Amino acid sequence: MLRKFFIFVILVLVVISFGKTKLTFWQFMMDDALAKEVLSGFSKEFPDIEVEVVQLSWSTGFDKIVTAIAAGAAPDVVELGNTWIANFASEGVLSELHPEDLEKYRDFPGMNSTEYMGKYYGYPWLLGTRAMFYNVDLMMKAGLDPDRPPQTWSELLEAARKISELPDVYGIGLPAGEVYSPWQEWFLLAIWGNGGNVISKDLKKATLNSQQNRDTARFYQELSKYALKSKQKDLGDAFGEGRVGFLVSGAWSIGTLAQSYPNLNYGVCLIPKPDKPDGIHASFLGGEILAVPSQTKNVDAARKFINYLMRPEIAMIITKHYPGVYPADPKASSDPWFEDNPLHLVFFEQLKTAFPVPPTPAWPKIEDVLTNVVDDLIISYKDVDEVLNFYNTEIQRILDEVGM
């Protein structure tokens, strides 16, 4: 009798196992322990869906995803960097968002980074951005009010000038001489804040030499007179040592400063905006996007899983492990964690006016051009019109080669 009972139990377990929908989830953010914590609630709520979580590395993950898709072995759900969406969507290998989900998340920060050619191909899950750090003590020494950090370009320009008059101090740090940071840590952000862009909305025409961008470049050149110009890491160290008044950086700097410069008296504010009614506190939007490859057969189960991961209380589990990425859901701001971490709340607020790079496969080449633009403007101090006209031609050449 006992033997029959055990056989019965085994048969039941086999039936239950075969009755489950199995999903594969490829992602970068969670190790095994964190994945278990995040998914514990899902397995209870959806016992009929079994999820296999695979952690990818940033060094090889992109290539593994490309290879799997090419081989017809794509995962059911995949995490993509938001700058990758255009590459995959242009190849037709991602499913469009279900209309119900598009309606649900349409107004979330980061949804603009999932769009390609008027259609949406992903869910903004975890987002990161830039904000402006300011040295409280240096502001006070320069006769500035640290309770009112600069809100506009003119206010920042004046504050940076005053701080630079202090001995052995720079008003602001501006990245130069390396890839990425020269345009990510403010130049392109300033262009967006002033209503400009580097390519047209249809992704076909270079617009670097527009009037908005000329005005932005002239402001940036003027600001650079009071700046320490170096690589971002060097600027971070200089800020921590109290030698720089202002610095645009990511939320990772909060942890770095706490560890390396625990006595630094500083605050964080939104990135200053242009002095005009339609000026924007614009910032750079980076983020992790959840997508469903078009090869996926378990679409309904994949949607249930993604909608679970999108919940603010679930995404906040990851934020608490990795401060610096935040849930896209605005309701996450009510989480008590932000009360204990008010500097992070500034970054969460900055997400509301953060923009992704243009969704074109040509972007990797265009960003190299922007690095040269910044160096020519603030290191070589070349003529604004000459620089923008020259590199506008370069960007147009890149766009023509891609043939959007």
UniProtKB/TrEMBL annotation:
Molecular functions (GO terms): maltose binding
A GO biological process held by the record: maltodextrin transmembrane transport
InterPro entries, per database record: SBP
Superkingdom in the source lineage: Bacteria
One Gene Ontology term, aspect cellular component: ATP-binding cassette (ABC) transporter complex, substrate-binding subunit-containing
Pfam families documented for this protein: SBP_bac_1
Assigned keywords, A-Z: Signal, Transport
Family the entry assigns: Belongs to the bacterial solute-binding protein 1 family.
Name of the protein described by the UniProt record: Extracellular solute-binding protein family 1
Record organism: Pseudothermotoga lettingae (strain ATCC BAA-301 / DSM 14385 / NBRC 107922 / TMO)
